[in-house]
Design goal:
The chain is mainly α. Helices cover about 55% and strands about 5% of the residues. It is built from eight helices and three strands, in the order H-E-H-H-H-E-E-H-H-H-H. The chain has a three-stranded antiparallel sheet with strand order 1-3-2. Helix 1 (about 5-15) crosses helix 4 and helix 5 packs across helix 6 (about 100-105).
């Protein structure tokens, strides 16, 4: 799975309708250009491809009163919403995904009901624990990974990463159980997108031809 698909669908969905530069601006506001492949070219390409495949609907809009070329605004379709929610749920339980995919999923976690999120995160923890039990039983010598020389550090790294992920996930579960955040159906969620014209202190400022689309 690519994080860009989840990020772009989620950003458009949060706005209702958004042009490409708004999506880029939101993702830079999140710092996604630092921890994922959400670079301008990837964002604009994803928007066009997902519109082509029916996940987004492209609206032709007139130029702004300030001038400039016409822009295309994108709106998520029912098919796109189904794909977004599928990717989100899959990313929350699949502990072996890349960090950018896990980070993207956490960014949209409040789009799901609280109890469903708790179930998904508990399943994530269960899968991590099952993986750890399997690898330590079959791949680590009784006297420890040091018996494998420096190659044993590979297993040390993976086990340590799994333990850290499990600990973080349990902590998130506890915070959500304690009432943290507003989830779907619970009222006004935290607004994680920029309004039109709002300054983005984290914008890269690097121009791209797609900014005018």
């Amino acid at each position: 799975m690519s994080a860009i698909r989840l990020l772009v669908l989620g950003a458009v969905r949060q706005h209702g309708r958004a042009h490409g530069y708004q999506v880029r601006n939101d993702l830079e506001y999140w710092g996604a250009h630092e921890w994922s492949n959400a670079k301008p070219g990837s964002i604009y390409h994803a928007l066009k491809q997902m519109a082509k495949h029916g996940l987004l609907h492209a609206h032709e809009v007139a130029p702004s009163t300030a001038g400039g070329p016409p822009r295309t605004e994108y709106e998520i379709t029912d098919k796109g919403t189904e794909e977004f929610l599928r990717l989100l749920r899959e990313s929350l339980v699949a502990y072996d995904q890349k960090m950018d995919i896990q980070s993207a999923a956490i960014g949209f976690v409040v789009d799901l009901p609280r109890e469903e999120v708790l179930d998904l995160l508990r399943e994530r923890t269960r899968r991590i624990e099952a993986w750890r039990a399997a690898v330590t039983e079959h791949y680590i010598p009784e006297d420890g990974p040091g018996q494998l020389g420096h190659i044993g550090e590979i297993m040390n790294l993976w086990v340590h990463t799994a333990d850290s992920d499990a600990a973080w996930t349990r902590g998130l579960v506890a915070r959500i159980e304690g009432g943290a955040y507003s989830f779907a159906g619970e009222g006004e969620p935290f607004v994680g997108v920029l309004t039109e014209g709002q300054e983005n202190p984290y914008a890269t400022g690097e121009p791209h031809p797609g900014d005018a689309d």
